[in-house]
Each structure stands twice: as C-alpha cells, then as structure tokens.
C-alpha cells in the first residue's frame, strides 16, 4: 500500500496522486498545471498503459486535464467518477484539447517564420475522445468494488456539479485501510449546488488547503454588491468584464444576475449580458438539464415553479468567433462573462485587450487567481500586462467580489478534518500554495494532535505502516507510539526538518557526496552565523 504525490503538492494546480494498492496501480485525479510552470512536472511515475484505474474527484481541468495525454500514451484502464463529472469532462476535455491544438498551431505559425522546429500539441481532440470512452460513472453514496480488495465510494463535496470526495477501502495482506481524498472541498451556500457533506471515517486523509490561511467573509447581499458594480460602471459609460471559470462560476454569476433583474437592482434593467465562451455555454446547458439530484433546495424550488435558475431576458450568447469579436464593437454598455478564469487562455484575452485600457470599464474578478497567471498580475496592480502579444495598459477599475469562493475556508477545512472520528493516523495536506499548505498543516497538527504533513512532489509513503519512503527505503516513521511524549515527537520532527534543510542547502550549493567535509564545514559556519 503506497501513496505517492505527483501534483498539487505545495501548489494549487495539477492535482495527481498515485496509489499502489491491492496489486493495482491507481491515480486519483490527473490534472494540468496552470500558470508559468504549466509545462513542468507532467511526467508520471509509471507508463500510461500500466495504470489500472483513475478515480476523479471532479471535472475541473486542474484535476482532469492530463487524461487525454494518457490516452495518447496508451492508457487502457478504467476511469471512475460521478455522472455529472463524466458529462462535464466530455465538454471540458474536448475544450482543453482544442486549446492545446490551437496553441501548437499558433506557435508553429510564428515559429515557421523564425525557422524553429514544429511543436506538437500536448494532445488532440481525438485523444480527448479516446479517453472519454474509458469513463464509468457511478452514483454518490454507493460503495463499488472495482477490484479485489478495492472499494470506492463518492460523497457530494459541494464544490462543483458532480464534485466528490472519494473514499477507498483497501484490503491488502490482511490489512484494511480507509483512505479519504477530499477533492476540492466546497464552500457553503454556493448557488445551485448542495453544501458539502463531510465523511467521518478514514485512517489516512489527503485534503486540500487552498484557503487554509484565510476566512471567507461572504458579502451579506451578493447580488446587491454585484448590482452596485454594474450600476457604477454603466454610469461611467464602460463595460463590466468578468473573467470567469466556464464551468461552475459562470453559472453562479448568471444565477445572481437573474436575481438582480428580477429585483430591478440596476437602473437600466434591460442591460445585456454576454456569455462568451463555448465551454461556458455547453456547461450552462448541462447545468440546466440533467442534474436536479445535485441541485440545492432553492434551485429545486425555482425549477418546480417553472423558472430556469440561470436564465433571464437580455442574456446573449456568442457562439462563433465572429459573434465574439462583434461584442466589443457594440456601443451599448454590457456585462461580458468570458473564460478562462485566470485570463491566460480563451476569449477573455480579447475582452481584456478591448477593456483593460478603458478607464470607464471594470474588470471584476470573481475567482481564485493562481500565482504566475495574468489574472493574478492584474489583481496585484500591474501597470501593464502582455495580452495576445501586445503590452496593454491597465486603466480599467479592478474589482474583486470575494466570498463566493468554490473552496471551503480555513474554518471549514478544519471542520472537515475534525469530523473524522477516531482521529486519522495521518493527514496529508495538498492543493495549497507553498506557505499556505505548510502553515495549515502545522495548525491542523496543533488542533487535532495527530500527524499532519504537507508532502512534496514525488514524495512516497507506505500507508500500511504510515512511513515515508525515499528511493524505496524507509527513512523515517511518523507514527508516534503511545509511549512517546510530545517532546520526543517534536524533536523527531525537528531532526527531520534539519535533514531536509541540509539536503536543500547541499543541493543548492551543488555539492556532490564526496564533498561532504567541505559541505559540513560550510553548514557549521552557517549555523554559527544564524545562532
Ligand atoms: Zn476544483
């Protein structure tokens, strides 16, 4: 029973965990990294055709985006997820493949003029279509034996339509362990979908920590705040541009705009709202159709009264790229919702190009902006940003509407961990930026008084004995025996951190093993200086 970490370790994107259990090789999520290091760390510990199963927590591309690449590399196993996740993956993986193909084409067109060799897309639409054939959806709350000694079950984690935490019950060599992967833990009161349901049994927990360092302060009246921003921007004569994740966030914003229109919260109630993202439109259709089982009470109530929760007069959709381009040449003041949510891909780039330099427009951020993305740069106050090869001045009003996060805040994350009874043998904190996952792990350890660690990329653990491995060799046990005092555990941890620090320094200074004396001397002088 071995668990290795191959993505979203000390960062928030590229989720991927590798489980070897009951003689099978299993991946939990296989997402793409986003931001400036997107193309690094895509390699996996084994060849794609050796993977038996992939279990998906939800459809977001940072949890699923590498799947078509696996198809290209010969994956022939099975993928398990919920029904809504399968349907969302159907549109999202095709879309991701389109982007890969488009970008390769664009680079090749540019590269040709410079005599550069041709680049291949990471994967193609055909690869996406191939992987979609491996999907096996199962309902929430149903324990399914996928193989001998391997049972899985999904529980609604309230992050996105179809999102789930996944529990494994593994039996190997007479030992049974329960392993819980939180997936992305949803916030409460997200429009349309249900609140997260927490699990109460697990020996080993792998949990996210995106907002492990902050508390959400939800605006008392979200639709009023959104209406105020729209009103104020229209008064200035500009447009409201909302970079939004196509799936989930876009539908939530539509939900609030429907309320704004219903309550006449903006003077010009006939204002037009453009959804300009083919993916967002497809997703909106999925949200509208099939998944009343995922809807919360308010949404179900609207549906039962014949009201579409995410539709209203003045809602316009841009399907073709010509329709998309035309939006910016229309003289009317409008709200434009477009993807990608972090501004690095898709049609949002055109809308930013046309509105960022306009002091009468507003760019409204409604979602998380990862480090290294254009969205984060704008939000951090960059004076100019490079978009579609052009340096664009940022003169528009930059606004943010927090509190509608798809992720649980620190308090809810702690609650998620506290809900597990008896305490887990080990908690792994992943899916958080470097300092956030570390500080959250430390705090959680204090509160729960059980072992918590934030693993690094490629770190491996034997989860039957709860020991960390390196190069196949067990280097340290984390499981304090009942005879150990807290002090002993503290010094063990101190020693572990010291060893880690030593190896980081040795690596950064480029010492080979034979330079050990020189290295020790340098380390001693460093310690002298620090103490
Ligand atoms: Zn997510």
What's the short version?
The protein has 531 residues and is of the alpha/beta class. It has helices at 61-64, 67-72, 83-113, 125-132, 222-236, 249-262, 278-289, 297-304, 321-327, 348-355, 374-379, 410-418, 434-448, 486-508, 516-530; strands at residues 2-5, 16-21, 24-30, 53-55, 78-81, 135-137, 144-147, 150-156, 164-172, 175-181, 204-208, 240-243, 272-276, 315-317, 334-338, 362-365, 384-387, 390-393, 397-400, 426-430, 452-453, 460-462, 467-470, 473-477.
Low-pLDDT runs: 472-478
**How many helix segments?**
15
Distance separating the two termini: 42 Å
Report the structural category: alpha/beta
CATH superfamily of the largest domain: Ribonuclease Z/Hydroxyacylglutathione hydrolase-like
Fold and architecture overview:
The chain is an alpha/beta fold and 531 residues long. The chain folds into three domains: 2-214 and 406-476, Metallo-beta-lactamase, Chain A (4-Layer Sandwich), CATH 3.60.15.10; 222-400, 3-Layer(aba) Sandwich (Rossmann fold); 487-530. The protein is built from 15 helices and 24 strands. It has helices at residues 61-64, 67-72, 83-113, 125-132, 222-236, 249-262, 278-289, 297-304, 321-327, 348-355, 374-379, 410-418, 434-448, 486-508, 516-530, and strands at 2-5, 16-21, 24-30, 53-55, 78-81, 135-137, 144-147, 150-156, 164-172, 175-181, 204-208, 240-243, 272-276, 315-317, 334-338, 362-365, 384-387, 390-393, 397-400, 426-430, 452-453, 460-462, 467-470, 473-477. The strands form four sheets. It has a nine-stranded mixed sheet. Strands 7-8-9-10-11-20-21 form a seven-stranded mixed sheet, covered by helices on one side. Strands 14-13-15-12-16-19 form a six-stranded parallel sheet. Strand 2 (16-21) and strand 3 form a beta hairpin. The longest helix has 31 residues, at 83-113. The chain starts with a strand and ends with a helix. Mean pLDDT is 89; it is low at 472-478. Zinc ion is lined by residues 58, 60, 159-160, 184.
